[in-house]
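User: Reviewer 2 asked us to show a designed sequence for the structure in our supplementary figure. I'm pasting the structure tokens here. Could you produce the per-position amino acids so we can include them in the response letter?
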């Protein structure tokens, strides 16, 4: 009975948007929360709650859009986009593939993680790029046939302390 009450309390907290502070792993996947993923489909419904009976508030219309998972409930993931808009998405519409959104206009891609290295391309604000790897301060990206390094601080879709090999 105590286990059921704890699970019910957690579920109600997730629905209300107040997950316990000590929870840093998803209750369903045991993966870190929050974490970044991408949309898997060109049409991804974002609902008010974690079920098909909840109203669709809006729809992602682009495959590969990075979103941040902030909570889990059954087969549903609460996500937030770059502007902070959020809702519930069925897990089958999300992918573990990693993309980022360029957060600075005309962001230079460098051949090495160094501002003094040669520039291979410049990316416009809002471009979605494939995340290949990240060091402490830089990430290697690919977009539009170009590859290079950009400062992590110029990207949305990767945590400041995240290292990706």
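Assistant: Here is a per-position design you can include in the supplement:
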């Amino acid at each position: 009975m105590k286990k059921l009450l704890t699970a019910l309390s957690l579920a109600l907290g997730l629905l209300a948007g107040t997950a316990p502070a000590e929870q840093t792993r998803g209750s369903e996947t045991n993966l870190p929360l929050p974490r970044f993923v991408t949309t898997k489909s060109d049409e991804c419904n974002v609902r008010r709650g974690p079920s098909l009976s909840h109203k669709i508030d809006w729809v992602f219309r682009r495959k590969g859009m990075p979103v941040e998972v902030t909570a889990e409930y059954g087969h549903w993931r609460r996500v937030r986009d770059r502007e902070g808009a959020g809702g519930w998405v069925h897990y089958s519409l999300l992918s573990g593939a990693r993309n980022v959104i360029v957060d600075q206009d005309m962001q230079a891609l460098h051949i090495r993680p160094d501002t003094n290295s040669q520039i291979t391309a410049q990316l416009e604000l809002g471009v979605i790029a494939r995340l290949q790897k990240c060091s402490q301060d830089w990430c290697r990206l690919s977009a539009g046939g170009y590859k290079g390094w950009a400062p992590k601080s110029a990207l949305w879709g990767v945590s400041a302390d995240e290292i990706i090999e």
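For the response letter, you might also mention the following. Residues 2-16 form the longest helix (15 residues). The helical segments are 2-16.
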